[in-house]
Structure to design on (303 residues):
C-alpha cells in the first residue's frame, strides 16, 4: 500500500469505528495529515475535552495519552506505539516529589505537563510551555517549586520576577543537546534568519533567540512574520511542517541533534494497526489515578 492509500483507509476506519486522532506537532507530516486535531501540549489537552468520538488515538508520547485519558475517562484512549515515552517524564517519581515537598513546605508544586500521571497526583498545578507564564502569574502562591524542567522554569521565572522559584535540575534531553556554539555557527551561516526556539532549550540558547515559545507559538510566529528565513530551535518535525505550510520561506534546523527519537517512534502503520485492533495500547488508569491527576490539570485548564 502507498502512504496515500493507508491514509485513505485510516480516514475511512476512523469514521466507521468512531475514532478521533490527535497529533502532537512533533509527529511526522503523514500523521498530521490524518489527525483531527494537531497542536502543542496545551492545545491537545483542550481538544481532548472537545472530542465527541468514543475512541481517541493519541499520536505523541505516553504522558500525552495519560492527559487525554484523565480528561476523557469515559473514552477508550490508545497510544499507537506503546514504546513512545518522554524521557523527561521519567526523571522524577511521585516519591521524589513528596520528598521535595518536605524540603520546601511553603512552596506550591508546579509540574510541567511532561510528567507521569502518578507524579501529577502529588502536584498543585500543571503547566505547558504555552500556558506556564499566564497560569503562574495568576496562581495564588508566591513561592513555586517548578519541576522537572529547570530550563523552562528559568524562562518562566524571568517573566515573573514577583515570584520566588525553586527548581529541580531536570530537562529535555533533546533540546538540552543544543549549545550556544550551535547558535553562533547557525547565525553565521544564515545571517538574515530569525532564531525561534522552544523554552526547553538551555538558557544560553534562549537568551540569543528572537522568539521563545511552544511548538504552536513558533509556528504561528514564523507564519505571521515578514521575514523570509528562520532558524528553528526545536524538534526537527517543526521545520518539516513549516516548510510545507510556507513554501516561500526558508527554515533551517538549529542543530541536527534536535531529533526526539521517542516522538519519531509512532508511524502511520501503527495508527492503521490500532484502528484495525492489531496494535497499539489502550491506556488503562484507575479511578484514583484519574481523579488525583485531574485536580492539578483542571487548575491549569480553569486558570
Ligand atoms: P509543547 O507542545 O508544549 O510545545 O511541548 C513540546 C514538547 O516537548 C512535547 O513533548
Ligand atoms: Fe520529551 Fe523532549 Fe521528546 Fe518532548 S522533545 S517528548 S520533552 S524528550
Amino acid at each position: 500500500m502507498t502512504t496515500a492509500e493507508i491514509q485513505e483507509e485510516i480516514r475511512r476506519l476512523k469514521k466507521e469505528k468512531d475514532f478521533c486522532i490527535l497529533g502532537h506537532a512533533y509527529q511526522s507530516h503523514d500523521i498530521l495529515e490524518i489527525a483531527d486535531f494537531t497542536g502543542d501540549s496545551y492545545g491537545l489537552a483542550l481538544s481532548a475535552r472537545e472530542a465527541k468520538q468514543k475512541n481517541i488515538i493519541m499520536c505523541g508520547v505516553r504522558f500525552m495519552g495519560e492527559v487525554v485519558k484523565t480528561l476523557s475517562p469515559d473514552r477508550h484512549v490508545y497510544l499507537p506505539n506503546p514504546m513512545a515515552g518522554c524521557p523527561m517524564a521519567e526523571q522524577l517519581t511521585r516519591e521524589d516529589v513528596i520528598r521535595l515537598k518536605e524540603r520546601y513546605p511553603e512552596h506550591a508544586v508546579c509540574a510541567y505537563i511532561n510528567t507521569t500521571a502518578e507524579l501529577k497526583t502529588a502536584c498543585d498545578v500543571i503547566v505547558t510551555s504555552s500556558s506556564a507564564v499566564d497560569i503562574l502569574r495568576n496562581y495564588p502562591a508566591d513561592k513555586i517549586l517548578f519541576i522537572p524542567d529547570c530550563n523552562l522554569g528559568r524562562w518562566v521565572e524571568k517573566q515573573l520576577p514577583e515570584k520566588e522559584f525553586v527548581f529541580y535540575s531536570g530537562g529535555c534531553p533533546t533540546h538540552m543537546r543544543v549549545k550556544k556554539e550551535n547558535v553562533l555557527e547557525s547565525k553565521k551561516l544564515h545571517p538574515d534568519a530569525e532564531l525561534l526556539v522552544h523554552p526547553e532549550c538551555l538558557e544560553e540558547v534562549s537568551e540569543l533567540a528572537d522568539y521563545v515559545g511552544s511548538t504552536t507559538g513558533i509556528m504561528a510566529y514564523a507564519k505571521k512574520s515578514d521575514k523570509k528565513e528562520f532558524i528553528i530551535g526545536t524538534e526537527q518535525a517543526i521545520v518539516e511542517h513549516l516548510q510545507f505550510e510556507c513554501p516561500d520561506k526558508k527554515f533551517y534546523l538549529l542543530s541536527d541533534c534536535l531529533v526526539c527519537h521517542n516522538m519519531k517512534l509512532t508511524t502511520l502503520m501503527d495508527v492503521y494497526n490500532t484502528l484495525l485492533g492489531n496494535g497499539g495500547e489502550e491506556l488503562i488508569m484507575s479511578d484514583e489515578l484519574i481523579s488525583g491527576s485531574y485536580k492539578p490539570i483542571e487548575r491549569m485548564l480553569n486558570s
